[in-house]
Design a protein that fits this description.
By secondary structure, this protein is α/β, with parallel strands linked by helices. The chain has two domains: 4-66 and 219-290, 3-Layer(aba) Sandwich (Rossmann fold), CATH 3.40.50; 96-214, Rossmann fold, CATH 3.40.50.1000. It is built from eleven helices and 16 strands. It has helices spanning 4-7, 15-22, 47-56, 72-81, 98-105, 123-126, 153-166, 192-206, 220-234, 250-260, 274-279, and strands spanning 11-14, 28-32, 38-39, 42-43, 61-65, 91-93, 111-115, 130-132, 144-146, 172-174, 180-182, 188-190, 213-214, 243-247, 263-267, 286-290. The strands form four sheets. It has a seven-stranded parallel beta sheet with strand order 1-16-15-14-2-5-6, sandwiched between helices.
Length: 291
Amino acid sequence: MLSTSVLQMRIHGSLHEWLEVHLEELEALVFDIDGVLVIENRAVAGSVELLRELRSKQVLTSFLTNDSNHSVEEKARFLQRCGLEIHPEEIVSSGDGLMAFVEEGRLQGSAFFAMGDTGTPCFGQKAGLVMTHSVEDLPSCTGVVVGEENYDWEIVINSVVNHLIEHPEHPLIVPNPDEYYPKMGGRIQIGAGGVARFIQRILNTYGISLQPHYLGKPYPPIFLHSHLQLEKRCGKPIARRSVLMIGDHLDADIRGANDFGYRSALLLCGLTHAGHIEKSSVKPDMLFRRF
């Protein structure tokens, strides 16, 4: 049961049904991917049908993901295997925010160490960095990117911590700020954000103040990159309040959308349940029980 305070919010049963009435109010829809459209290797019930309907109406859509260990090309192939016809040019990864960071810092050609996977093609290389996964190369690197999965945590984290002790001016780039992300059966996987904050805490305890550079939701880089891509695709400016962001995570999706000026809708099919909404200061504009 939803409590009285949550019931005071705008609660709807079906996102699909709401869009049938209100779609003309919107210029674009932005969907979170993991936990909204898919959970692990399965499409969420109703997501395939809704996407098919939006395609038939030629609705401008963008799909955001904090998954930085897969390229947008890899992510599109995965989604297509799940029955969702989504193309690479419609997907914005947290890794895409690295492009602006590299340009602003004039870091093109700089060597960066990658913790874990960074996708194929690698988003660091696409941004103009020279990427390495070898801890032996760390002394020649000018920064660290925290990827996801498939690395020896003990060796790599210790090496990165000691590198940053020696070079506290080097940036620690975190495409995925998430502490964790959902797996099947209610399980979770520790995310790059959790690893980065662990490194930050160790360094702070040691006496070195370090602030990671976050690129993904809820931070602005991923939303800005996505919005610019939407405007480029439709050939005109888009008012932010005419965009609806659909997500399942209060801190990543809803906070990010609210801060960026988008309207926000929370689906109760992923990480968030009514108890989380009660305890959080972050509130969506709308709440949906299903697609």
